[in-house]
Amino acid sequence: MAMSTGEVTSYSDWMSQLAPQLQDTPLYKLAIPGSSHDSMSYDLDINSTIIEPDELKKLSPILCARELVRTAATTQDVTITQQLDAGVRYFDLRISRKTNDPEPNKFYFYHGLCTRTDAETVLRDINDWAGKHPKEILILALSHFKDFDNNIEELHHNLIESIKTVFGAKLCNKVSTQDPFPTLKSCWDKGTNVIVSYDYSANQEPELWPRITYYYGNSMEPATVESKLESDLHMRGPNAQNFFVCGLNLTLPEDTRVLKYILNPFDKLTNVIKRSLPRMLQWLKQQYSQTPYINIVASDLVTCDDFVSTVVQLNKPTPTCVEA
To answer: Which of 11, 179, 181, 288 has the fewest CB atoms within 10 Å, i.e. the most exposed one?
Structure first.
């Protein structure tokens, strides 16, 4: 039940607790916490071949190499349901098939390695949660689609049909330039609470949204990330009318410098990420106070350092947010 004060007391249902003035605000104007670097990275399969980085692919047969990749690639340490319960509403879901998989129509998530759990099982878990929390709007961003080179159209068709079957009437259709952008209230009225972004240009399904722009610093240095995000947000401006992600996450190099972080026995990547979070959250609050047009904010290790509460608390009614 929405609270007239707009005070959030439970992050498992924070959208339903926002101030009534915000219920008619387009979703691209709400601050929404999200998880980055594949939301399923807690479930990586040590028996999977190495998908990335390229520098280590040839070492896939070596167990210790796969263990190193799994350690470095585990950027989320709690399950998808725990992330949902914590208040996360945007999910970075990178799709792959497993090499030489005897089940060609089975899909997995990946970050360095494939996950143990297949995609349909996880989507059904998300659907079950969405059914129990009908006023919480979930945004699922599916992308990358590794090992889709053969039978690409058939594979996309099968995955899309699976998505439509799992979520059914919960799916919120993408909008055109003539359509009003979804709000909390419009989703509640229609009984829809799942938005699926599908990053494949040939996708024409009305139930699936196009790629959501993701701004990130592409660096392991917080100062560089902040500077790049400030530039991107300035270039975007306050008037664009679509979803976008501001990624607070650090990003590993794509060349041999990645080994510095993967092979360092004294400073795990998760520790590096945790040290950066308080600073990044302080930057977020300062940035929002100066240019209040933040939408989705994504991070690694989303249950650390008050990440969710910091993002959610950015949602304050303004003079331009009036009730219909």
So the answer is: 179
Let me know if 111 is a catalytic residue.
yes
**Choosing from 37, 144, 157, 234, which is the catalytic residue?**
37
What is the rounded CA–CA span in Å between residue 131 and residue 293?
A: 30
C-alpha 209/C-alpha 175 separation (Å) is: 8
CA–CA separation, 161 vs 172, rounded Å?
A: 15
Could you give the CA distance from residue 112 to residue 9 in angstroms, rounded to a whole number?
Answer: 37
Reading the chain (324 residues) residue by residue, the pLDDT tens digits are 334 457 888 899 999 999 999 999 999 999 999 999 999 999 999 999 999 888 889 999 999 999 989 988 999 999 999 999 999 999 999 999 998 788 878 999 999 999 999 999 999 999 999 999 999 999 999 999 999 988 899 999 999 999 999 999 999 999 987 889 999 999 999 999 999 999 998 888 999 999 999 999 999 999 999 999 999 998 998 888 999 999 999 998 877 787 777 777 677 888 899 999 999 999 999 999 887 789 999 999 999 989 999 999 999 886 544 443
pTM: 0.94
Active site residue 37: yes
| Catalytic pick among 111, 144, 156, 234 | 111
- Specify the amino acid at residue 297: V
Burial, 72: exposed, middle or buried (Cβ in 10 Å; 0-12, 13-18, 19+)?
buried
